[in-house]
Design goal:
Layout lengths: L1 H20 L2 H4 L9 H16 L25 H6 L5 H28 L2 H11 L3 H7 L5 H18 L4 H17 L5 H10 L6 H31 L17 H14 L7 H16 L6 H20 L3 H4 L8 H19 L3 H26 L11 H9 L8 E4 L8 H4 L3 E2 L5 H6 L5 E4 L17 E5 L2 E5 L4
Parallel strand pairs: 1-2, 1-3
Antiparallel strand pairs: 3-5, 4-5
Helix pairs in contact: 1-5, 1-6, 5-6, 5-8, 5-16, 6-16, 7-17, 8-9, 9-11, 10-14, 13-16, 14-16
């Protein structure tokens, strides 16, 4: 026990230091920016709607009026609702997700120690996960993918140490698995992996029954939320939020090849520093060769997690083309793969100081790589800071475009990127804004740059200018 706690102390210190090196304290203050800013803005829009319009938990909304009053639901909006209770929701949401992510990384140490029984190698395993740009970028972010994975890690850490004896802790483990799947439906595969895993306990029928009962209760809660979300969206005529599968068998050969190329080549640098990924692939040969040394439990978990990850990819294959954050679900398998790698390594190099030092130096390279690549991901899509400024709010209010008015905000190809900044319900290029103008469904139009002033289809509607704020033009529209 002392050995395990000593290692966890060093890991905790390392997580804090590495987080500072990754500039997490600075990132906490940023609005949605960088990779998939569109999806980040949707999350922030839902959070701000809770705060701005004092919405009940079960009636989430965003700013885009593609549905009735922007009413939409997807993943469980628990942390959006919670962050909305703070004065600065963007900071609160990033902070909540970051804390959950760091707890998830911390939990992987205990999972690794369960199989390895070595402090140093368990710390190495957790730190290596913390060098994945995909996890580090989306861990301190607005999307729920990494928090969902983190709850799964917490669930596995609690489950492995308690599934044979402590029912109270077992319930807590299933609470974690349930939250994981409520935040991201794909994480339900952890419950499926777990059920197959416990079937091997033939001499503990009572434990199997308890676990199956908890799994059933968990699945019922998960299904209840997604049934409610789907019904809520249908009731409010939402056609945007994705609550269904997008399987490989519905795609063309070109799209199948494109998704495979992105997962394995062009976007592979999101996983780890590429030499690290290559090394892990090569090491798979040795894992297969020495699989008997992994132990029955670890062999089963790596096999099951691999099988369910492949199943997940096939069922959501279309999403793999343009959404690298869908790759986060792979990291249940990645965790057990890393543990297996260190298990085999430990058999041959248990007391080799030189090889341990080489791994430490290798981790340092990965940490530096992660910081550089996360900085790139943060800067590949930036927002106009004037739109989200307090001065912009004053400008809009003085011109009559108060928060109860409907606006058209262009240019903006997304649903909420600029609408959440101006904190107004309305429409963007995502919608058929010309039809909105023709049918007089908006009160004001906001033009983000002067090039749109000469747009021939807009000219008939740009007759009542209310001025501009740092190159952002405001026009009043006639609704009578």
């Amino acid at each position: 026990m002392r050995s395990k706690l000593t290692g966890s102390f060093f890991l905790l210190a390392g997580i804090v230091i590495i987080s500072i090196f990754y500039q997490y304290p600075t990132i906490l203050h940023l609005l949605p920016q960088g990779s998939h800013m569109w999806r980040q803005a949707d999350c922030m829009a839902m959070t701000q709607n809770y705060q701005q319009f004092h919405l009940p938990f079960f009636q989430p909304e965003t700013y885009n009026l593609q549905s009735v009053n922007g009413k939409v639901a997807g993943e469980l909006p628990l942390f959006y609702f919670l962050a909305a209770k703070f004065a600065h929701p963007k900071f609160a949401l990033r902070l909540i997700h970051s804390i959950i992510f760091l707890f998830g990384i911390f939990s992987t140490y205990f999972i690794a120690f369960y199989f390895l029984r070595r402090r140093l190698l368990s710390v190495f395993c957790s730190v290596l996960l913390f060098t994945s740009p995909l996890l580090v970028f989306y861990g301190n972010n607005f999307l729920t993918d990494v928090p969902a994975l983190s709850f799964a890690y917490m669930g596995w850490a609690i489950f492995l140490y308690n599934y044979k004896k402590n029912t109270a802790w077992l319930i807590i483990a299933f609470v974690c698995f349930t939250l994981s799947a409520l935040l991201k439906a794909s994480e339900v595969m952890n419950i499926a992996i777990l059920l197959f895993f416990v079937l091997r306990i033939r001499n503990q029928e009572s434990r199997i029954k308890t676990i199956f009962f908890l799994a059933l209760a968990s699945c019922l809660l998960i299904l209840s939320w997604y049934f409610y979300a789907r019904s809520y969206n249908q009731q409010n005529h939402d056609h945007y939020y994705f609550l269904r599968i997008s399987p490989i068998w519905k795609l063309s050969l070109h799209d199948i090849g494109l998704a495979l190329w992105r997962m394995t080549v062009s976007w592979s640098k999101n996983y780890f520093w590429r030499p690290t990924s290559v090394l892990l692939i090569i090491s798979s040969y040795f894992l297969i060769k020495h699989r008997r040394r992994l132990g029955e439990e670890l062999r089963m978990l790596i096999t099951l997690s691999f099988a369910f990850t492949i199943f997940y990819i096939l069922v959501f294959y279309q999403k793999m083309i343009g959404h690298e954050y869908y790759y986060v679900a792979f990291y249940i398998f990645v965790l057990f793969l890393l543990i297996s790698f260190f298990k085999v390594y430990n058999y041959f190099y248990a007391e080799n100081v030189f090889s341990h030092t080489a791994i430490f130096l290798f981790l340092l390279i990965n940490i530096f790589y992660c910081r550089i690549f996360v900085a790139e991901k943060l800067n590949d899509n930036l927002y106009n800071g004037y739109l989200s400024s307090d001065e912009m709010q004053d400008f809009l209010n003085k011109k009559g475009a108060t928060e109860n008015k409907v606006v058209i905000s262009i240019p903006d190809e997304s649903t909420n990127k600029t609408l959440y900044q101006v904190k107004r319900k309305g429409y963007t290029e995502f919608n058929n804004y010309l039809s909105i103008l023709k049918n007089k469904k908006a009160d004001y139009i906001i033009l983000g740059n002067e090039s749109w002033l000469t747009h021939h289809e807009l000219k008939p509607y740009l007759t009542d200018s209310l001025g501009n704020f740092h190159g952002i033009y405001l026009y009043k529209l006639k609704r009578d």
